[in-house]
Amino acid sequence: MTRDSQREWCVVDLLKTTAEYFASKEVDEPRLGAEMLLSHLFGETRLWLYLNHNRPVSGHELEAFRESCRQRLDGRPVQYITGEQYFYGRPFTVDERVLIPRPETELLVEHAAGLLSAGRDSHPEGECRVLDIGTGSGCIAVTLAALLPFLTLSAIDRSSQALDVARANAARHGMLSRMDFLEADLFDPDLASRFSGLFDMIVSNPPYICETEWEVLQPEVRRFEPKEALVTPGGIASYQAICRAAPAMLKPEGLLCLEIHADGASKVCALMESEKFREISVAKDYAGFDRIVSGRMGV
Q1: CA distance linking residue 167 with residue 210, whole number of Å
Q2: Residue 85: burial class (beta carbons within 10 Å; 0-12, 13-18, 19+)
């Protein structure tokens, strides 16, 4: 956005000019990015911008907005600039310590919640416990807690910094009393013994990008998002570790629910079959790609 110290700006003009400038610099989703940055500046919704399109922008506000735009032009994701990403209709705090939640992961929550609700209808009594492996921002675990009041959840991550973000998000949404957060690595051979037979479900969106694919991802992903939350050896190692550990951590008839790479369904299904899971199913995302694999522990 070019600097014009003499011009008086209003919301609609600033939004239009910024979106056009972002587009000229080939910034992804220029209009949406401009809306998110400007609504964050005012602490309002994007709809508010259009309802207040003639509101003047002060010099102080304009300089703060320009600083946000400079960060965006440098490639920093909008969500890290604003410190927030909406997930399943709820705002989550995010920064460079955690992966930015993706819309596809909402399908994992939806699928897991459906399985848990169906199980609750069959067995309405007793505790229902869920483990979220690689919780990151905590968006999966916190959202499940908010959707299903009968759950208690454990969330693990190998990053203590990510766990700090997840705890803050649990507190933000009033779910902290029903959750615990533990530093643990899914590749730890002692992981299963730490949680033996505790859970009705394990849910995870683990790293599933291989190193060669990482090298061709968008520059803003490679520069700003935590690589360890995305990349795993061969693109499959995380699933191998989870499927090996899950049988010991699940109760009889317990469920495993995983988000997968779009071309990973056959490999993950085979891993689950090798560990004696049954009722294995694959769900597609809205683009028609395989996205969720789930199965039930055999007895």
Answers
A1: 29
A2: buried
The 3-state DSSP class for residue 71 equals helix
Instruction: List helix spans (H) across the chain.
Output: 11-24, 30-42, 46-51, 59-73, 78-82, 103-122, 139-147, 160-172, 191-194, 211-214, 219-224, 237-249, 265-274
Helical pair 59-73 and 11-24, crossing angle rounded to 10 deg? 20
User: Tens of pLDDT along 175-221?
Assistant: 999 999 999 999 999 999 999 889 999 999 999 999 999 999 999 99
Please give the model's pTM, rounded to 2 decimal places. 0.93
**pLDDT tens per residue, range 276-285:** 999 999 999 9
Nearest to 275 by CA among 291, 290, 258: 258
Query: Does residue 236 contact residue 267 with C-beta atoms inside 8 Å?
Result: yes
